[in-house]
Amino acid sequence: MKILQIHKYFTRKRGGGSVTAFFETIKMLTQKGHEVAVFSMQDKDNNPTSYSKYFTKHFDLNEKSNPCKKMKLASKVLYNFEAKRNLEKLISEEKPDIAHLHNFYHYLSPSIISALKKNNIPVVMTLHDYKLICPNYKLFSKGKVCEKCKGGKYHHCLSNKCLKNSLSGSFLAMLEAYLHQVIGSYEKVDMFIAPSRFMKNKCMEFGIPEEKIKVIRNPIDIESIGKDIDYSLGEKNYFLYYGRLSQEKGVGDLIKAVSELEKENLLGENILHIVGKGPEEENLKNLAKELGVENKVKFLGFRLGKDLMDAVRQAKFVAVPSVWYDNSPMVIAEAQISKKPVLVSDLGGSKESIIEGETGFVFKSGNIKDLSEKIKKILALQKEERELLGQKGYENIMKINDNETIYQETIGIYESFLC
């Protein structure tokens, strides 16, 4: 079986969790003896591949350019004819049996679905975010969860300026959503893979047929992650948030909870470590100062590999305080592989990876009092009790992210369309 894997990025330096899942899917299939072809966009940081000759030309929607160039790029976002032509050439010469799409919108565009169906190639698509049902892909706008576009009412994206608070960007996202609704681009996908039950249920609420969505967790290279973990490291007096510093991640609530606990002298020597970069970094630093807890919140910048895993391993626990519908955060898996308890919000699919009271805890999103209480509860545990939570979390992630099960379920979908 020759399987075509598609993502707009072909480098781990871009794209976050969806890129990781894309590369891990390729690795999983290759190790099982399948031939894997790839299609993506050209980039100076791309991994080397013989398939790069088919990739579309690189462009960056965030770069400054003149109005004429912006209009040209906008047309590519809506329907990238170059991507369609290049993919048709790949199909003609490489003859894949099935295609598996990951994140491709904005750069490759749904034009590639038309190319695949024109050539009678079955199409599977992993839902890494909510782009299928939400023009800004987050179901999050103006600091809170938003489902106003339910029922195909995409005009709300424009009126609320949902895409980066930009009128032009939001107009383009709205136009894109209406265009592909009219021409039925996503209806041509044969099967959607949801990495969480929450993702499946939410898409069903928005009208996607249940029989077209199967829940399969993202593959994780547990062995590779484990190589960066020094299990001999003991915990220190801090708890940890790591990830992108953006509004939907809820880091501000975490700082507010720190402030509440400090007022009651309940933190002791414990502090919050924040690892990551993002657009909210300065706002978060200012918030810590305003609340008078800058000495209890330490910003450590961006880290990767062993440096990051050392920070995780030495934390008392890892917090995932999202105020949006997280899908299936890699952070939780990494923390559990590191044998650390995890505290997550009750929004989205995060809680599906937690056994309440056994591997971590779940708090009510946006509720600073509940968040504070759960932080206090974990810090009040004996070291050995936290270690037990971490050990059970490790056992849990090994069970729910078993790559053999993920492989069998994924290949089962492929084969169902090739019989």
How would you explain this protein's 3D organization?
The protein has helices at 17-31, 67-78, 81-94, 111-118, 155-159, 167-182, 197-205, 222-227, 251-263, 281-290, 305-313, 330-337, 368-380, 383-400, 403-416, and strands spanning 2-6, 35-39, 98-101, 123-126, 140-141, 144-145, 191-194, 213-215, 238-242, 271-275, 297-301, 318-320, 342-345, 360-363. The protein is built from 15 helices and 14 strands. Helices cover 41% and strands 13% of the residues. It folds into two domains: 2-128 and 190-219 and 402-416, Rossmann fold (3-Layer(aba) Sandwich), CATH 3.40.50.2000; 223-400, 3-Layer(aba) Sandwich (Rossmann fold), CATH 3.40.50. It is globular, with a radius of gyration of 22 Å. The longest helix is centred in the C-terminal third of the chain and has 18 residues, at 383-400. A six-stranded parallel β-sheet has the order 2-1-3-4-7-8, sandwiched between helices. The chain is of the alpha/beta class and 419 residues long. Helix 10 (281-290) links the parallel strand 10 (271-275) and strand 11. Helix 3 (81-94) runs parallel beside helix 4 (111-118), helix 9 (251-263) packs across helix 13 and helix 12 crosses helix 14 (383-400).
Rg estimate, integer Å:
22 Å
Helix vs. strand class: alpha/beta
Low-confidence stretches: none
Global mean pLDDT: 95
The strand line-up of the biggest sheet is 2-1-3-4-7-8
Number of domains: 2
**Overall helicity:** 40-55%
Backbone shape:
globular
| Proportion of residues in β-strands | 5-15%
Any idea what the CATH architecture of the largest domain is?
A: 3-Layer(aba) Sandwich
Q: Output the CATH homologous superfamily of the largest domain.
A: Glycogen Phosphorylase B
Number of helices: 15
State the distance separating the first and last CA atoms. Answer: 12 Å
Q: Secondary-structure element sequence?
A: EHEHHEHEEEHHEHEHEHEHEHEHEEHHH
